[in-house]
Amino acid sequence: MDKKQHIAIFTTASLPWLTGTAVNPLFRAAYLAKDGGRKVTLVIPWLSLKHQKLVYPSNITFSSPSDQEAYIHQWLEDRIPFSSNFSICFYPGKFAVDKGSILGVGDISEVIPDEEADIAILEEPEHLTWFHHGKRWKTKFRLVIGIVHTNYLEYVKREKNGRLKALMLKYVNEWVVDIYCHKVIRLSAATQDYPKSIICNVHGVNPKFIEIGKKKLELQQREKQAFTKGNYYIGKMVWSKGYKELLKLLHTHQKELAGLEVDLYGNGEDSDQVKEAAKKLELVVRVNPGRDHADPVFHDYKVFLNPSTTDVVCTTTAEALAMGKIVVCANHPSNDFFKQFPNCRTYDNSNEFVKVTCKALTEQPAELTDAQRHALSWEAATERFLRVADLDQASARKLEKSTTNNFASTSFNLRKNIEDASAYLHYVASGFEASRRAFGAFPGSLQPDEEQRQELGLAIPAGK
């Protein structure tokens, strides 16, 4: 019998941090493993206690990886209608405060033994490989698929000397993605372009949101009032996540939007500043702590306002559409996937924002069809992923050399030699603390510290 494909999904965050790279790879693992035809391992960062306290909300912490693994499986099984059938492994990570993200420590590919390495999915391939120092991903795995989640260039442009930084980052991203990934999937055209990449939204929504939408549809069909509240927005409360754009729109058009009320929900380092800016408006803008978007407090809102242009495919927008709400969002590549839904209303400028928002408040959301509801689901997202990932090429690659003619083989070998040299250059550059620090790594990221080794049961390197 043929051996099952083993898919290892590496990602840059984990629950209870409710960020996109924690939630979406988790659902991807569950749905890829659902039919039992594949072995699936989700590989996530393990943070020591002091770093957990910097990242995880509501004072949630874990004393061991097994405790966190149990928490994750329970969280997932409360949200999907089947038992999850995948395993979880941890790699050592640390939270980089200056970047607001988790970075791996050491060679994170070692989590998967060489004899089990088959197919790797790198969720945020740039992030996972900027400082990678170890076995080359393309050598260890037969097929490496990068899924680009984040519009890093847009974030960097907002920093001091942002345009120069973004130009440098663009080339670094192209470099590491090219040498470490066979195939690249971009969730939308809002991401950096990569050679030979394909644009496809391979994300879905938690099934609970679809169930909420069905209940709202039943109320509408019975001519009951399904939505009793007006406008809201939910997202990590940092300026770059749409709050700056939204509050600017509200400030500019206070007179035209007189009487409008907006509720904001989120936690983040800019929460206090967002509250102060909201108080200065003549409009009623209430700022609330973050909650799970499936919380009943959100069910009765009719209009989701999302002016963010830093997202790639906004998870909360998809969730709002699944719940049957009207979404008002910018006419931006990150929202292209959502334009197929009748409840998605886009605007090109601030005057159109006012017009579209006011109109949305006077209308009832259109009823989603079964096909539209399916397009938002993880079943459909998994179908799209399997179609564009073309996993069977991992086996076909073995025959590549023997089936090419001499000229094509020479050309292939030349490209391979150049790529090998480029990969070696990255290996050397990433092997020195000074060069790593110069490119933004935190101190001591070449090897896990003693605390992480004990927590993860890692061997102590020879000579120590």
From TrEMBL:
Keyword Transferase included in the entry's annotation = yes
Q: Does the keyword Phosphoprotein apply?
A: no
Q: Where in the cell is it found?
A: Plastid, Chloroplast outer membrane
Q: What is its EC number?
A: 2.4.1.241
Quickly give the catalysed reaction: a 1,2-diacyl-3-O-(beta-D-galactosyl)-sn-glycerol + UDP-alpha-D-galactose = a 1,2-diacyl-3-O-[alpha-D-galactosyl-(1->6)-beta-D-galactosyl]-sn-glycerol + UDP + H(+)
| Region described as Disordered | 443-464
Any single GO BP term: galactolipid biosynthetic process
Q: Which GO terms describe its cellular component?
A: chloroplast outer membrane
Q: Name one GO molecular function term.
A: digalactosyldiacylglycerol synthase activity
> Family, per the entry?
Belongs to the glycosyltransferase group 1 family. Glycosyltransferase 4 subfamily.
Q: What is this protein called?
A: Digalactosyldiacylglycerol synthase 2, chloroplastic
Q: Which organism is it from?
A: Manihot esculenta (Cassava)
